[in-house]
Amino acid sequence: MRTRFELAGLIVLAMLGLLSSSCSSPRGSVSCLPGQVVECPCPGAGPGAQTCSASWSYGACNCGGPVPMADASTMDVAVTPRDAGVTPPVDGYTPPTDAAVTPPVDGFTPPTDAGGTPTVDVFTPPTDTGVTPTVDVFTPPTDTGVTPTVDVFTPPTDTGVTPIVDAGALTDGASADVGPVDVPPGSCGFVSGEVSAHVTAMTTMGWGALNRSRGMLMHGCAGARRPQDCLATVPLADATDIGANRSAIPVAHLRVLYTGSTRSGYWTRSSADGRFVGRGVHLRDLARGADVAAAGAMYNPAFYPDNSGFMYQPGGRNCPMSALTTATPTSVAISGAGSPCSGSSAGLYQHLAASLDGADYWASSAGTAAWDDGGHTPTLTETPRNERWTATAQTSITLMANTGAGFSNVGSRSVVTPLQGDAVISPSSRLLMTRFIDDVGAYQGYILNRLEATHTGSAITASAREIGRYCVQGAKPAFSFDERFITYHHYIGGGAHVEEDARELGFSGAADPAFADYLSRGAANIYIMDLRTGRPVRVTNMGPGQYALYPHFRSDGWLYFLVRTLGTTAEHVIASDAALFLP
């Protein structure tokens, strides 16, 4: 029988050819493959052995005793620092003199400042080797009073994916889904036991499981045995679009779903089956490779988690999915004569949900919000709020009924969300995630609320109760369909926390000459965070002037997001399988 060490070595040899193309430069490369063992000198004791860890770097020289094995309880996320030699996009970009999209609020000016401290891995180059490894060293933030836990990346064992290393079992009773302990409610790092219980329940009864049990046909999955096999014919990102080294997780893939030639305004969202993408007012049918104009819409596409319909603003216009799937439409009238859509009281920046029994359909409005349309011009920090988030701030939820032929508005109700805004309802309608600020107005992170919403006819009763507080910086989030993860983008290049951002990307600090282009051109990266642990994982390595924005999940766990680049009107819609590799 082969030992775990021997099996890991065989797997490493099999993967070596696949990953060798990533090792062309110190930054943006890995220094070794997990499980790989090399000889190293021992002072006065002959040769020893160094083993490559799960963070893609060699450990200390072992000069006696057994060679250490990789263990899931100590494995760190391999977040590859970006290549500082990125060729900046075309210079000479001149912002348009007239807005292509009418802002929701009069007088809205694209933001230029804000800030935040992401609690993510920080790269510190070692000084005692001849190789510059990409070792991620976690530095706890100094302003939260909580010692964050370290990101753990373990390839899953239950999906059919061949892991890069034999991670073994968690030891000493450790569990991958246990959040911080002894953190009081209302403090950074607080995660109630309700969160883990909810995630466990959604594994079998959430919209991801329901759509799977109902045989939802996922886009790009014909003949695929598992989600990881989907979109296999979609081209990988390369130098002709966003660059070939833009994945921060070496085993994950970034695939270019399509490229739009015109600018969009505000966010991008897609249907539960991943077939339709709403890029501002531009709808794309990926199955047909065709555009469908959203006539009469201005912004904010959103889709229901059961694939029954979608919504555009203004007017909270609900449309049945049949408007896109019947025949081969080139446009859909979102409003006006002949429109299949109906209005609702759902406000701007809405997210959509459906009760798990399919009886009720809900929308959360952002309440007070931060209109986020970054990347058209240099955007160095999270966007400022359109109005103050006060101690009496409220979030509106709207109830709708699905008649089978369309949707009808039932009513709305507000819940108090103090010092919070940018509210997002989960697919099941049982959770509400908000961003929150401190008493001087600085962004602090996210609050996870348990949402209790019931109704008798049009009389709605609703309340929100905090069950988690995550002090990481990022923009408006989106839930996964199993409600285990949120995903968000984070702007870099300026603000009070630019030093931390620079180090997290692998630079010595904001004064590092290689980071200079980020200070002037900015960038944005995508993150995924496990709600049970509060651990963020960076998905992308965008270059200066590249903005990965508006990430969101489809039902099977694939992640879609938009990439804007300064100096060009082209926008790329990208798919990532990163979440499918998280433990």
Task: Describe the structure in your own words.
The protein has 583 residues and is mainly beta. It has a domain at 200-581: 6 Propeller (Neuraminidase). The protein contains 6 helices and 28 strands. It has helices at residues 4-19, 193-205, 207-213, 322-325, 498-504, 516-521, and strands spanning 37-42, 46-51, 121-123, 136-138, 254-260, 268-270, 276-279, 282-285, 290-295, 299-303, 309-313, 317-320, 331-333, 351-354, 361-364, 394-402, 407-416, 420-425, 431-437, 443-456, 459-470, 478-479, 485-492, 523-530, 535-538, 546-553, 559-565, 571-576. The radius of gyration is 24 Å and the shape is globular. Residues 1-34 and 65-179 have low confidence and may be disordered.
Q: So what's the CATH class of one domain?
A: Mainly Beta
How would a textbook summarize the main sheet? 5 strands, mixed
Measured as a percent range, the helix fraction is under 10%
What is Rg?
Answer: 24 Å
Instruction: Tell me, rounded to a whole number, the average pLDDT.
Output: 77
| SSE class | mainly beta
CATH topology of one domain: Neuraminidase
Please describe the structure with a list of short key phrases separated by commas or semicolons.
single chain; 583 residues; mainly beta; Neuraminidase; five-stranded mixed β-sheet; four-stranded antiparallel β-sheet; 6 helices; 29% strand; globular
